[in-house]
Amino acid sequence: MLLELDNVTTYYGQMRILEGMSLAVDAGELVCLLGGNASGKSTTLKTILGLVRPRSGRVLLEGEDVTSWPVPQRIANGLAIVPENRRLFGQMTVHENLELGAVLQDGSTFEADLERVHTLFPRLKEREEQMAGTLSGGEQQMVAMGRALMSRPRLLLMDEPSMGLSPALVQQNFRIIKEVHDSGVAILMVEQNATMALSIADRGYVLSTGEIVLKGQASELLHHEDLKRAYLGR
């Protein structure tokens, strides 16, 4: 298994956010983590990345306990994140933002990685000298994804990739996510748009107040009556 959370409980101060969470992502899988606001989705990603340390439980990468590892060590070992609201360096060019994604690499694969990103996102080649802050929302999402891919991740964490995008751009964004997944990158995606997420995912988990309340194959969850009532509005 590429990633495992083993009975993880996480607190912010005295407030419990995650309770006994266990989930897994295998190599090559696209797994979505669904839930409403304040359900613990973003905290789950922060725990995986090492920004938040669990009170109990373990984070495992390919069976190795990385719970005590700092963020840079986890990134160097194959984790990358596309954060909520993209968080680009707006006063830097598209190319400079992509360069930052490769900062922990030795440079030997930089040109090949950049070419791969430009193949996935041809618009970024056209805009490489443009300031990232002047791009459209959809283009900024491409930069955020490209920056993460420059670190050659084995597992890409995505936090609300459809947030703030128009319906047309949401459709385009999910097509791109599927292309990235089809290229061989495993993805764990946090998303409130359950219908879109499940339409491209292999499996899914549903969080409520920090606990997994549903899990299964994406096609099964898409037709689960409780999920349809709670998250799909039907």
**Low-confidence sequence ranges:** none
Shape: globular
Q: State the oligomer.
A: single chain
Q: What is the string of SSEs from the N terminus onward?
A: EEEHEEHEHHHHEHEHEEHH
Question: Ends: how far apart?
Answer: 35 Å
CATH architecture designation of the largest domain? 3-Layer(aba) Sandwich
Number of strands: 10
Q: And the CATH topology of the largest domain?
A: Rossmann fold
The CATH C-level name of the largest domain is: Alpha Beta
**Structural class of the secondary structure composition?**
alpha/beta
Biggest sheet, open or closed, and with what strands and sense? 6 strands, mixed
- According to CATH, the homologous superfamily of the largest domain is P-loop containing nucleotide triphosphate hydrolases
| Sheet with most strands: strand arrangement | 6-7-8-3-9-10
How many DSSP helices? 10
Q: How helix-rich are the residues, as a percent range? A: 25-40%
Question: What is the number of domains?
Answer: 2
Task: Describe the secondary-structure layout.
Layout: E1 3-12, E2 15-25, E3 30-34, H1 41-49, E4 56-61, E5 64-65, H2 71-76, E6 79-82, H3 94-101, H4 110-120, H5 122-126, H6 137-149, E7 155-159, H7 167-182, E8 186-191, H8 194-200, E9 203-208, E10 211-217, H9 218-222, H10 225-232
Parallel strand pairs: 3-8, 3-9, 6-7, 7-8
Antiparallel strand pairs: 1-2, 1-4, 4-5, 9-10
Task: Give an overview of the whole structure.
The chain is α/β, with parallel strands linked by helices and 234 residues long. It folds into 2 domains: 3-78 and 153-232, P-loop containing nucleotide triphosphate hydrolases (Rossmann fold, 3-Layer(aba) Sandwich), CATH 3.40.50; 87-147, no CATH class. The protein has 10 helices and 10 strands. The chain has helices spanning 41-49, 71-76, 94-101, 110-120, 122-126, 137-149, 167-182, 194-200, 218-222, 225-232; strands spanning 3-12, 15-25, 30-34, 56-61, 64-65, 79-82, 155-159, 186-191, 203-208, 211-217. It has a 6-stranded mixed β-sheet, sandwiched between helices. A 4-stranded antiparallel β-sheet has the order 2-1-4-5, with helices on one face. Helix 3 (94-101) packs parallel to helix 6 and helix 6 (137-149) packs parallel to helix 7 (167-182). It is globular, with a radius of gyration of 17 Å. The mean pLDDT is 87.
